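Friendly challenge for the regulars: who can give me the structure tokens for this chain first? No prize, just bragging rights.
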Amino acid sequence: MDDKTSMSFKSSGTEMQEGPTPRHSLLSGRYKQSFAYLSLRNRMPGIMQQIILRLMADTQNLVDQFGEDVRADIRHIVEAVERLKNELYRDRQFQLFRGNEPDKAEWNAFLMELPRPKRTFFHACWLHAECYIYRRIYSFFESSRFLLGYDCFRLLKEDDLTMSVKAMKALAIATRGLGKSFENFRNLLRIVLWSNHFEMQMSCYNFSEEENQNDINVLAQVADLDRNVIVDDTTQIWNCLMKKQTKLGVIVDFICDNGGFEFFSDMLFLEYLVDNNLATQVRLHVKSIPWYISDIMRKDIEWTIQYLMKHENDVLSSVGAKWMRLMNSGKIIVAPESHFWTGPQSYFVMVEMDLPLYKMLTAGRLVIFKGDLNYRKLMGDFIWDTAEEFITCLRGFRPTNICAIRTVKCEVVCGLPEGMSDSLLLTDPMWMISSNYGLIQYTDS
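First reply, four minutes later:
Bragging rights claimed.
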């Protein structure tokens, strides 16, 4: 995209607000006491600077791979990211996509349909602004000569896995031959919920002589340390999967979040479902482009399995080999990629925007949405009353039975007992952005 392609309309003049985001509003950077404002003001420019530094550090490797001409691509992308940073700082209006983006028609239609006051970074819904930034960053690579397919976040994802060997070994040993029981299912679900923190938790945990570091019950306690599950529908999820199988079997769709160690723990849980006939097939839904720093793509899954298969530790290499067999047999597969996962839309419009994807989900027994971004898209990035029912906040999005697993990182929360949010605010004013509180929510179809 070029600066000349910006939409031709004047700024709305809507004023910034000093307070937090009010209830029954979309999350937005226009509220200066919101997490959205802090993220757009501080975090996103930092991420863009890291992308520039990553490209500069990778320059010689890219020259070795593509030749000296790739330097022009690098220069153009760095300049484009710098321009995007300046547009964000100045709260400029969103620009239409004019390059080689395969989903530009959908993106441009969405941008043009936004109300005029919602077409700038800080006045748009936070979800829309964030998705737009990540999508536009990758458009710079798509318009390059050599760097289409370059993942500026690849090393971060790979390093997150390679630095977690101790935790991986413990979990791998604990989950070999794990029997079918509600307690094992519950423990694995807790580890999946807190996987972003598990490596650090395990390093800090003081194991007693009686505690076996390779016992799933002990490891679930490690995951739960100083954490709080404020909604726990694990029993309903278990009951859903325990129902009688149909002729089509039990298909579980898993909407992935991060790569690295988090994906490793996700796969241990999904492997458990298949091994114990709680699912006859698991379909992994991944991002088609580099997204939100650490979101997993198909090539990340392939790299992860190869890394494990070649690992010097026998347990980890056997886990990698087993996952490869599960993939080859079709028991765990990567679903066809959809640009809907990297679009700005909330999930309640999926049936209109990507009917084949919606129909695919309807054929499954359960769809599991993992992580904060998926939760925000389920909720429409809308600040509901925290006691509002989960099913109400889905706004009719019910392709099948739905589970959401998420650590709370922003003000979008629902399904809490009446009065819980106010009580938490008194004891922990930052609870909504602390990542110390988790949700395991379920509703049937």
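The longest strand covers residues 401-407. The beta strands are 228-232, 251-255, 281-285, 332-334, 366-370, 401-407, 437-443. Your move, everyone else.
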